[in-house]
Amino acid sequence: MKEHLYRWRNKQLREHTAVVDGEVAPTIILKNATYLNVYLKKWLSGHIWIYEDRIVYVGDQLPDQISKQTEVVDCSGQYLVPGYIEAHAHPFQLYNPHSLAEYASKRGTTTLVNDNLMLLLLLNKKKAFSLLDDMQNLPVSMFWWARFDSQSELRDEEGFLDDDAVVEWLEHEAVIQGGELTNWPEILTEDDRGLYWMQEAKRMRKVVEGHFPGASEKTLTKMKLLGTDGDHESISAKEVYSRVKLGYYAGLRYSSIRPDLPKMLEELKEYEGDFYNYLFFTTDGSTPSFYEQGVIDRCIEIALETGVPLEEAYAMATINAAHYFSLGDRLGSIAPGRVAHINFLEEKNQPTPVKVLAKGEWINFEGYAFKNRNPDIKWENYGLGNLSIDWELRADDLLFSSPLGMDMLNDVIMKPYPVKSESQTQKLPTTHDIAYVMLVDREGNWRISSFLKGFTTEIGGLVSSYSNTGDIVLVGKDKRDMSMAFERMKELGGAIVVVKDGEVIFELPLPLQGVMTDLQMDELMVKEKELKQLLIANGYQYSDPIYTLLFLSSTHLPYIRITPKGLMDVKKKEILFPSVMR
């Protein structure tokens, strides 16, 4: 078998050296290759031998033995670079880990380091680990990180994460990082559990990633003392530079919610020092249509547009991230011993590849390796089937009473505002942008309701089983439309459904536990753009409604959130109005 899980066995290692000795023929020979050596930051010429999924030789010689099965590719006129690394992926933003990896690999991103939050919320550990292991059989390299908090206020936070569960995740060989530390204020003061898990990650020689937007030098210093290695939350060159100066690796973000990369790279020109080796790229879980322009290939393109030296731009997309994760002996370069992730470019300054090798298999050249390897995933085997809701939404659930509402300052930041008059009518007027909002337990045990300002002036009801906690979000102006959208979401086994004037005007089925679709990325992009355009036409004032739905309950953002425990003042960590049992 060509696929391996987390290491090569002794028998395979002996075969690899036998290829060099001429006793075994390579699987692929890349002749006359001009390739980037990321260690020297130079373009070199030579021949590359690949045996199954591994590069076994790079140099001036051709092998003594070539079999009939050996594929010989003349690379004259092309430029070869290592496969790109997405160092911070959230593979559950309506798409799923497989569909994201499939799409990204076509654009040359052959390694992804993924968030495990939805796996914690939706699956038991056995099912989750089975998914992690099976995904190692894909042509891409799929790694994960272990969360130390829920990023919200769950009613059973202690049960959600305990010492044994977190340590078992950290011990898994596909898990290469602890964090991201969205709960860093608590870790700094009183969260000894989180601090213990950080130390366990360090003991296992795994990095810990921060989440420190706007953090002061003092805060960064203290979190460095506690064991943090990297942070991707910089929004300016000054913040990037301050992190590198203190010994952090800094992820440069280009995402749908924070497209900061062009500005940061322009500003970095004003800073002196050799800091590029400590920078890497991330798209930080962008919503689907943002990826139309590319994944990490687009980040490289932006870097080149802003004047970053060519070789440094490719290193930021490859070896820098590999070094950060202590995977430089395995990924991030075209050198002996590395996984055979190689991108073929028409020009050095055109980072979107024309051909891609991933684990020694062609991704978009003479067949597509994903379809060959796993044409029909049985998601239900991992516990990711349809969302089954066996309870009804009652009339008394749609009684909205709260002295405080949530006022959207942008897609994801919300401040409290005083509700001057509470309406118990069936329908709110379209003369203002205030809507009903409710978060209800997917098991039907509790609910919390309020008012949301800035989301819509016209939509009668939007119901989403996609949220940060996996619970059900309801937003709208008309209680009848909200009930209708809820019933349709139930019928679909999880979905985003929009109803206006008693008619379903949009639906996106989410058959993977109500959180993810099984559509291919190209199809999903069309549906997401349709939803965005629809909501904007009906009063949505910003650009990314998917992130609004996701982060309504996320307590790492200011100032007020609607969480499973209730309406919460994030800065004070106080529940202003508790959720109620149904």
UniProtKB/TrEMBL annotation:
User: What start-end ranges are recorded for coiled-coil regions in this protein?
Assistant: none
Q: Check the record and name the InterPro entries matching this protein.
A: Adenine_deam_C, Amidohydro-rel, Metal-dep_hydrolase_composite, Metal_Hydrolase
Domain Adenine deaminase C-terminal residue range list: 421-573
From the UniProt record, list the reaction(s) this protein catalyses: adenine + H2O + H(+) = hypoxanthine + NH4(+)
Q: Does the keyword Hydrolase apply?
A: yes
Which EC numbers characterise this protein's activity in its record? 3.5.4.2
Q: Name one GO molecular function term.
A: adenine deaminase activity
Superkingdom of source: Bacteria
Protein name (record): adenine deaminase
Species, as recorded: Alkalibacillus haloalkaliphilus
